[in-house]
Design goal:
about 475 residues, ten-stranded mixed β-sheet, six-stranded parallel β-sheet, 12 helices, 20 strands, about 30% helix, about 25% strand, globular
């Protein structure tokens, strides 16, 4: 095992290995010449914090400084890193230096032992963490969402302005941009001979619709995920108009307006939003949290010995003249053989590009091309896939399903899985750090994304 934890209290420092006192194999003084980024992980209360470290990176020092309050969330993070370090295939070699104390934020900001902060934890604290980190001159890679209540949106705007003044980067983790069916959906929508142009749509039939189905119980990195109780409290996590929907809003901007800056003050108009609950039994709550009873902050959502989690939401809005719909649903456990699922439609004048992930697709995301009104010649699609896209994505193919309907055949090598996307996000972030800047459209579109989700929260009313 390659895990060292230095746990500092207010009066003493104690060297402690998580499971048995093994010394670190690679101390900080032996970091290689390419080690330019030193990570600080702040309050890692969500499993995404660990997934960023599932892979090693040449530019990133193996020594990582962790600042957090003591408790089960920190221990879960440490167990995950230990598992990565000790796995048989491609083990990582992270060396964790852990500060445990209630003043963990102040300690991180005063010590500044790294130059990039990874944030993935309690969402109610995240906007303040972001602002204070960039104010201290630190780069930030933050898990979504960056903000969960409209009152904090101005602080997020200030954080981006402060990051620009300080010359540091502020970026969020948008893993879904790296999923292959979404990438090919975007690519095909940019070929006029296939897609035509976007329909404007209507509230009843939006030009673009995206829906995701998530599950409270799941396996992560090969073992059942333990969720903290606060995950089910909208005051601490936010509801899914503020949380998971950020991925879908991001994809709408990224696919429909690629590399184009969106001005949240003029380009977005919220039409309506609503939310509803998913019930969870007391037994399910014990299974997923390990807790024997509901904490007091969840009792307002308990009825008939079931927790009614305000987890689901839908928003309808207009972005640069296109009608868009985002919908997020949560269930307790996925069907056998399934995981989180995604449904997506882009409607063009020649065809609709549709991603389905149901039983018919064996729960694997599958991209279909569906002609509209005979406006898509088969030769146009064949040429686009077999001549244009195959050059970028070798091995993809085209399978006729019915008259005017095709399936894009995608080799298994491209389906790398959700957990692998965190390393892809990190590599992109490291590239931007090397250049010293983010593309301007990324900054404006992050603000547009969180403006959209906060407008939806306002439109739906408080849960």
């Amino acid at each position: 095992m390659k895990l060292k934890c230095a746990l500092f209290g207010w009066t003493a420092a104690v060297i402690l290995a998580v499971t048995g006192g093994c010394p670190a194999e690679k101390p900080a003084s032996e970091a290689g010449p390419d080690c330019q980024v030193r990570l600080m992980v702040l309050d890692p209360g969500h499993f995404h914090a660990a997934l960023v470290q599932k892979t090693m990176y040449e530019e990133v020092c193996p020594d990582v400084y962790v600042y957090a309050p003591d408790g089960s969330e920190l221990q879960e993070y440490l167990r995950s890193i230990e598992a990565f370090n000790s796995r048989a295939e491609n083990p990582t070699s992270w060396v964790l230096n852990v500060y445990k104390g209630e003043d963990y934020l102040e300690q991180m900001l005063s010590e500044k032992k790294g130059n990039a902060v990874v944030l993935s934890g309690k969402n109610s604290l995240k906007t303040d963490y972001i602002y204070q980190s960039v104010q201290a001159g630190l780069n930030v890679l933050a898990d979504k969402p960056m903000v969960i209540v409209p009152e904090k949106f101005p602080l997020l705007v200030d954080a981006f302005e402060t990051a620009k003044k300080k010359g540091v980067l502020l970026y969020d983790i948008m893993t879904e941009r790296y999923e292959i069916t979404t990438i090919l959906q975007k690519e095909l929508s940019a070929i006029p001979e296939v897609f035509g142009s976007f329909e404007k749509g209507s509230p009843e039939e939006p030009a673009v619709s995206k829906e995701s189905v998530h599950h409270f119980f799941k396996d992560v990195a090969g073992r059942p995920l333990r969720r903290p109780a606060w995950f089910f409290d909208p005051a601490q996590r936010g509801d899914d108009l503020a949380d998971v929907s950020t991925h879908l809003v991001d994809l709408i901007q990224w696919e429909c307006f690629p590399q184009q800056p969106i001005d949240y003050r003029t380009d977005i108009r919220m039409l309506s939003a609503r939310r509803w609950t998913t019930p969870m039994t007391a037994e399910q709550f014990r299974e997923i949290t390990g807790m024997e009873s509901w904490p007091e902050y969840l009792r307002p959502y308990v009825k008939d010995d079931a927790l009614h989690v305000p987890a689901n939401g839908q928003m309808d809005y207009v972005i640069r003249g296109l009608h868009a719909r985002v919908s997020v649903r949560w269930e307790y456990r996925a069907p056998e053989g399934a995981g989180d699922m995604h449904f997506s439609v882009l409607r063009g004048s020649r065809c609709s590009l549709v991603i389905r992930q149901g039983p018919q697709e064996q729960y694997k995301p599958t991209l279909y091309v569906e002609a509209r009104g005979g406006n898509l010649p088969a030769e146009n699609l064949r040429k686009a896939v077999l001549e244009t896209l195959q050059g970028r994505y070798p091995g993809i193919g085209l399978e006729p399903i019915a008259e005017g309907r095709w399936k894009i055949v995608i080799p298994e090598q491209y389906h790398v899985g959700h957990e692998a996307h965190f390393a892809q996000v990190m590599q992109n972030f490291l590239g931007c750090l090397k250049e010293g800047r983010l593309p301007e459209w990324e900054v404006s579109n992050m603000l547009a994304k969180y403006y959209t989700t906060m407008e939806a929260v306002k439109a739906a009313g408080r849960p």
